[in-house]
Amino acid sequence: MEQADALRRSGVVVDFFGVTGKGLKGYIKALSHLKRKIVEFAPDIIHAHYGLCGLLANLQHRVPVITTYHGSDINEKSVLPFSRISMLLSKHNIFVSKKNIDIAGSWKGRCSLIPCGINLPVIIPKEHARDELCFMPNRRYILFAGAFDNYVKNYPLAKAAMDLVPGASLIELKGYDRAGVTKLMCAADAILMTSFTEGSPQVIKEAMACGLPVVSVDVGDVAELTAGVEGCHVCDREPSDLAEALEKAAGFGRTEGMKRILERGLLNDVVARKISDIYISVK
Question: Is the pLDDT of residue 220 over 70?
Answer without folding.
Answer: yes
